[in-house]
Amino acid sequence: MSDLEYASRARSYYRDFLPGRYQQIPNPEHFFSDLGQRIEDQVQTAERQLAGPDSPDEGFLAKVDQLPVGGVEVEVAVQLSPRGITGVPAVAAAAVL
How far is it, in rounded angstroms, from Cα 64 to Cα 84? Predict the structure, then answer.
């Protein structure tokens, strides 16, 4: 999923379920663009961590076997992270992912 998709999901969630908070955002375009980028960064970092280091005797197919399927595992890992997504209420972060 791209940062734009995360941003769109977050915007929809805030608008539908946190309308008061949504209306208080001074620059929604910047806020959701930044939020989408932060989510994508965290997902990419988690993907690299889950894939682990490359080993010299590891072939391409063995490495592909280690990668998360469709990013689902990674998105769940980011969602369940004790840190969450910086600056985002946990319930909103869960809905975005």
Answer: 27
Helical H segments across 1-97, by residue range: 3-17, 19-24, 28-51, 60-66, 72-80, 90-96
- In this predicted model, what pLDDT tens digit does every residue of 15-60 receive, in sequence order? 999 899 999 999 999 999 998 898 888 888 877 777 777 777 877 7
- φ/ψ of residue 39, rounded to 5: -65, -45
Pairwise CA distance, residues 44 & 93, whole Å: 16
Given CA atoms 68, 97, 44, 8 in this order, what sign does their dihedral have? positive
User: Can you tell me whether residue 18 is helix, strand or coil?
Assistant: coil
